[in-house]
Amino acid sequence: MHRRPTARGWALAAAGVIALQAGIGLGSLDLVRIGILLVAVPVTVFLAEIVLDAVRGRRGLEVHREVRPDPVHAGQDADVLVDIRATDRAGRARLAGLRFSEQAAVELSGGRALRARVARRADHATVRYPVRATQRGRWPLGPLVVTRTDTFGVVRSRTTLGPESQVAVWPAVVALPAPSDVLVGEPDRVALGARTPSTDDANLRDYREGDDLRRVHWTSSARRGTMLVRSDERAGMRPVSVLLDLPVRSAATEWTISLAASIALAMLDSGHPVRLAASGFRGGPGAGTTRDSSPYVHARQGPESRAALLDLTLDLMPARTSNDAEAALLDAVRMLDTTQAAGEIVVAVVGPLSAAGCGALAHVADVAQGWAVVRADGRHAGDARDAHHTATVLRRSGWRVAEATTDESLVECWLRLLGNGR
């Protein structure tokens, strides 16, 4: 709670001090009395405000905040509605004299004052205003700031009301054309949805996350005490891992995350189980410990599957140095190796890599179908040359590769990747 005299309060106090001094100097008792009275008004009101707030506290008023949509994509607008409701007679009396304003992170307000529309009724008031999400992440909104002036207009009190909210901002994404036969070629044609039986259906293997439960051989699973599936890879949609190498530069980081999220959504819409394998997972609200890969998200989970994928990007944070970034990428690649990535599709968005990074990705292509977008991060003059070298090494290792810069269209980058042969 912050309290301070208003301009009227300061004027009364100043006039009282002048009258008091003049009365003492002139020996006028009336002037002394007037001076004491003028000084006593703001002082008494100030003390009364302290006592009344100590007794009433913040009872009698409830605050509810709603953001639509929430989450919101970076670059989009959202509407915020704050409802302040009085729960008793004292609350209604307090509500009538309050002025409202909101606090928001600069990533939601753009550093500008929020312009709100206030509507009042006897028992509640609403504050409505727009925000514009400018950066991916989780950003605070609120609490509501209320200002009250006493009846005499000499003391202004300022305090917060209600809890703070958090707005989730997803990365900006674009609709990418869903890959079909272009992605996997004729040998894997039915991996994209055909259900043609195979003479190898009797061959069994251990269940892997992302396998279609309809392929589980329940009799053999019960006999062995572990889940087994028919090893016909063509019977279902191949799982997809989207591998991210997050650069140190923030602008390049957001471009990378936007491209990876757009690719993941395109693959999910095609019916593939999709997961993110990133070098920058950090614990966040609802997240566990630091990790390098997420569980598979399945399209059959309904509309929530897209939100589940995008939620995984909220807490992605780049490393502080290039060495830390590559070490984290190697950890993410090792995570793919330990989760039986054989037979899946790995789509990587990476920057210029060292020999160790290229070697790790080359090993992935031995067991999975590898596609990579190699970006030039613009860190130094030779960055484009290093990116080209990384792309060349990956192509020789069996990856399908497209080179890109972080200022180009995501759609053009994706189409170029679809059109490049190994």
TrEMBL record:
InterPro entries: DUF58 (IPR002881)
Ranges of residues in domain DUF58: 204-278
Top-level taxon: Bacteria
PANTHER family on file: SLR1927 PROTEIN (PTHR34351:SF1), SLR1927 PROTEIN-RELATED (PTHR34351)
Name of the featured protein: DUF58 domain-containing protein
Species whose genome carries this gene: Cellulomonas xiejunii
